[in-house]
Amino acid sequence: MGITLPVNFDWKRILKIGGVALIALILITLAVKLVGSTVGTFTKRGSVSVTQGSLGNSVSYGLGEKYSEDAAYGVAGGVPELSVRNIAPIPPDSGGATGNDAEEYEVTDYRGTIETRSKDEACRTLFDLKAKEYVIFENANTYDRGCNFTFKVARDHVEEIVAAVKALKPKELVENTHTIKKQVEDFTSEIDILQKKQAVIEDTLNKAMSAYDEITILATQTRDAESLARIINSKIQTIERLTQERLNVSTQLDRLARAKAEQLDKLEYTYFYLTVVENKFVDAKNLKDSWKAAIKAFVRDVNMVAQDVSVNLVTLFLKVLQYLLYAFIILIIVKHSWNLAKRIWKGQSPPQA
């Protein structure tokens, strides 16, 4: 005996409840998004952090973005540029030099970082050293947040330049003294070896040319064309190979000669590697950049909220409708399956179509 329960749907009430639920869902979504955005912003901000290094510093205004005052490598906008001058020098070989005359090959260089609130004045002071005859500039970079210079000074005037640099009150000024005797000896030894190799190649090339000339004359006199052709081909290959070897050796000799000259030049001059960093208490540019980043983050969050309460909400509604349709189909199948099972259990045959 089937029991049928009357079901009365009040559609107006259902629509009211659905509307209230939809509005509540939108408000909750907005609240969660805004609270999450605010908490995330304060979490990332905290306080202004300053990271200082031996050659520069970076300042962060709590937006997850660092505005680097990268004065160590002489670049505009804090973006490092790679060059031979930017590479840290190779430290002296720990093996040391032989003999008791290592001090005769001592060289000195200075590396310093100057932090100032007026980078234009400090950079101009250092650049004015270029006018002195005993100061030779090799590299000079000026950019928004500082500058850096690489120059060498005749050894007789080093104390004067050191005093001028100290007058700028550098944050750090390092004096490095070491001997280059071992490097000079290594270059000299390699040059001697290559010069001997070059002499051997020249001698071999001359002898080969003479031998091939004699064989060519003999083959011509005997009218042996095949042998003459082989001799000519062999001569060409030998000349090409020895000539290439001679060029390679000459290239290596030139490179070593330049490297040795650079090392010996350090005996006459002292190198200075100086960096000026602008470090203001209130940096208007950084503050402006931080405001730009904050506004961009706010617009991004508002856009996400707008998408969530419009397009994404419609997508969610369609997904729910899809699953409700699946549930309705499953419910119909279960209902008919249950009725069929009851008929079979009671011995009744299923209705014929």
From TrEMBL:
Keywords: Coiled coil, Membrane, Transmembrane, Transmembrane helix. Residues 225-259 form a coiled coil. It comes from the Bacteria. The chain crosses the membrane at residues 14-35, 313-334. The keyword Transmembrane helix applies. This is Uncharacterized protein. It comes from Candidatus Uhrbacteria bacterium RIFCSPLOWO2_02_FULL_49_11.
